[in-house]
């Protein structure tokens, strides 16, 4: 963190299952103060794997919920970590077959931007259009209780003309990535399905990602969003 600004990296890391060396180079090039991770590694040895992943980036693993996690750099403290489960509805995928997705979640916590408290939140919405809206309402309901400005980032699994993005606008959040270009896929970027949304009076912008196209393509199936926040 420098000059009162905070660097936040929002990134779907594809379960830490692609080229880990390339991913570490991408994250280190971005030099985040806070990293908001979607699709953090899970299953056997979840905490051990997440701590190892954070260490490979030169960061610390401090909070998580479901497949979302928060990592921080030395000198950055996450105050009052927030983690909550998001209920996902049952989805009829095929005739006479009903299934549900893995439980969703959101994770967040307060950090300081200069001397101002700000809440950062990370989420990963589901694949079904109605399910995403259902999940988002749960997240926004909790966000209204923070008492601070907040940054909401994550894999929204939807392009900007969809109802989730419209609902975020109705809530009064600013889409920081409106001119930042597509985020998926990393090998053929053609969709913007990852978002970074900010409440006033907090100021923010998307920074260019200082990593090679080769590393970005190898590191994950998504591209990262590097955000600079200022109070």
From TrEMBL:
Gene3D superfamilies: Endonuclease/exonuclease/phosphatase (3.60.10.10). Keywords: Endonuclease, Exonuclease, Hydrolase, Nuclease. It comes from the Bacteria. Coiled coil: none annotated. Residues 9-194 form the Endonuclease/exonuclease/phosphatase domain. The keyword Oxidoreductase does not apply. One of its GO terms (molecular function) is exonuclease activity. InterPro entries: Endo/exonu/phosph_ase_sf, Endo/exonuclease/phosphatase. This is Endonuclease/exonuclease/phosphatase.
């Amino acid at each position: 963190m420098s000059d009162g600004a905070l660097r936040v990296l929002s990134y779907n890391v594809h379960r830490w299952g692609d080229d880990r060396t390339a991913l570490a180079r991408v994250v280190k090039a971005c030099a985040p103060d806070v990293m908001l991770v979607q699709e953090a590694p899970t299953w056997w040895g979840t905490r051990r794997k997440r701590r190892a992943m954070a260490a490979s980036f030169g960061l610390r693993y401090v909070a998580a919920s479901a497949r979302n996690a928060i990592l921080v750099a030395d000198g950055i403290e996450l105050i009052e970590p927030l983690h909550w489960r998001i209920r996902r509805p049952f989805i009829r995928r095929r005739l006479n077959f009903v299934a549900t997705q893995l439980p969703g979640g959101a994770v967040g916590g307060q950090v300081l931007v200069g001397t101002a408290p700000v809440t950062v939140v990370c989420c990963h919405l589901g694949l079904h259009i109605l399910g995403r809206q259902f999940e988002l309402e749960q997240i926004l309901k909790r966000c209204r209780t923070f008492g601070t400005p907040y940054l909401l980032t994550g894999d929204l699994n939807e392009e900007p003309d969809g109802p989730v993005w419209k609902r975020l606008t109705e809530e009064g959040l600013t889409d920081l990535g409106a001119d930042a270009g597509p985020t998926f896929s990393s090998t053929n970027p053609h969709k913007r399905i990852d978002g970074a949304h900010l409440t006033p009076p907090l100021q923010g912008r998307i920074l260019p990602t200082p990593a090679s196209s080769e590393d970005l393509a190898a590191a994950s199936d998504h591209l990262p969003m590097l955000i600079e926040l200022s109070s």
